[in-house]
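Dear colleague,

Following up on yesterday's call, I've attached the two folding results inline so they're easy to grep. Please treat them as preliminary; we haven't cross-checked anything against experimental data yet. The first protein's sequence and structure tokens come first.
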Amino acid sequence: MTHVQAHDIDAFVGMIEAFRDLQATLCLVAPPHEAAAEMTAAIEDLTDRLRHFEVAEGQRTARELGMQGLGHPILVPYESTDTSDDSMLGSVTFGFAHMGSTDTVHGGVITLLFDDVLGMFVSRKGQPDSRTAFLKVDYRSATPVCRELRVTATIDSIEGRKTFVRGALLDGDVVCAEARALFVRLPSGRS
């Protein structure tokens, strides 16, 4: 593990975006054996090169990026457009890498989005260092890929270390999914 003292956030985000583009492209192709083998070797080589820059948990660039799913290659990036003390409005566009079938988003990816959005919102506006205790998602209609959607988060109540929150994913006036969750703040000294 090598210690890296300085890093460029914009360059890191660019690398994550390039990786997401690779994931989306992989969902759309059927390369012949020789080309697939050659590209697999190139990806393995790149992975080995990246391992040279591994650092401890507190030094990772992804941790600095926080809310909006930008710093983690499997999280769905979203934009928070309006935030108050107990609610958030944002936007998200799912890509081909998030597709389940027939130009609709895989249900597990929707759950992943809610866990990230609601968890980050609770940590920022409710209680820092909270973890998901439960998350229930109700799928209301098919969620389209490649279209900007609205995402909301609302804190319903805070009871001691517990924060109860809900969220929604909307395509215009159509509710695609709704979520209810409980996040629990870790006791002091735990992470």
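Below is the second protein, in the same order (sequence, then structure):
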Amino acid sequence: MQASSKLKVAFAEGRQSLGLWQMIPGANVSRVLARTGVDWVLVDCEHGNLDGGRNPYGAMHDAVPAIAALGVSPIVRLPDMQAYMVKRALDSGAHGILVPLLRTAEEARQLVQAAKFPPWGRRGFGSPIAMERFNPVPTFTDYLQQANDALLTMVQIETREALDAVDEIAAVDGIDVLFIGPFDLGNNIGHPILNGVVDQELKDAIVKISAAAKKAGKKSGIFSTGGNQAKMFADQGFDMISVATDYTALEFVMKQELSAARGEAGPSRGGSY
């Protein structure tokens, strides 16, 4: 199973991994993003528009197989860290989960319990869907025996509490990635990103989190708003970097093309927020 996860393979090979962020529902959107050459596509069930209508998990269940079918790792960002949400995301076949707004090491330990099968954790076993998102498709037994090691459990460090406890969180067995959400992190430490300006205190916090991950032997990830900024974070040594979201990239490209049609200078995207 690990060999079927493009993101897991990138980590095992020690190379940096680039991904895209899906906020707009639809399997065709998922496929477009997965065809770009990335290692992973994150299905955003926290801030994205993936509510699924009457079925709150419908859009997630559309996106995950569409991404996996193209050999790319589907990662699901949960709306919250509740155990049933963890189970539903992993049962959809996600290769990993990202949990927002973590605050304490104890919450990290509880998350690991929800994400892992016994004897390590408390995850229930029964979905016939999850194994179909890997190629070759594992048997029920293979999935049960391999999932604990093959699936990625990732947490966002974006609160004051988590920043203060980052070394303890990084040390939690079963947490694979410390992922930085710069906007919420800035807001929560009293240094919000305003008009693209990143205060030194926020820059220092980002460095602290990256260093804590490295010290604990874990991977570090970060959200960026475009390719130039993603390259900057890659140069800083981050392991997992988002390059763009579908929503903002679509608007940016359409504005560029419209400006070209009018013979005007198009919008530019710099290296800062």
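For the second protein, one point worth flagging: The chain has one domain: 2-261.

Best wishes,
A.L.
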